[in-house]
């Protein structure tokens, strides 16, 4: 399967998602959050750093649940990335 290159907006949304997850995690250890969410610490690290710009929905849902974020809040944070540049 060939994966298409990410658009600049997708890359920016990935960075915004990573920043949101880092803020929500706060001082909690990355290992604890990853294990509680059922993802590898490496996956969480990549999401937080923006290296995984388009993580799978179940992964984001699990991390958001552990961090007490609603999926509506996550979407609100990342969906306006492209719109921010226009204003």
Automatic annotation (TrEMBL):
Segments passing through the bilayer: none
Entry GO MF terms: DNA binding
CDD domains from the UniProt entry: HTH_XRE
HTH cro/C1-type domain ranges (all copies): 33-74
InterPro entries: Cro/C1-type_HTH (IPR001387), Lambda_DNA-bd_dom_sf (IPR010982)
Name of a matching Pfam family: HTH_3
Protein's name according to its UniProt entry: Helix-turn-helix transcriptional regulator
Protein species of origin: Leifsonia sp. NPDC080035
Source species taxonomy: Bacteria, Bacillati, Actinomycetota, Actinomycetes, Micrococcales
């Amino acid at each position: 399967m060939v994966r298409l290159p990410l658009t600049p907006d997708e890359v920016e949304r990935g960075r915004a998602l990573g920043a949101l997850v880092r803020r929500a995690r706060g001082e909690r250890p990355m290992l604890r959050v990853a294990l509680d969410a059922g993802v590898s610490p490496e996956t969480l690290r990549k999401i937080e750093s923006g290296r995984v710009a388009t993580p799978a929905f179940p992964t984001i849902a699990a991390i958001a649940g552990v961090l007490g974020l609603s999926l509506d809040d996550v979407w609100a944070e990342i969906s306006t990335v492209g719109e921010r540049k226009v204003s």
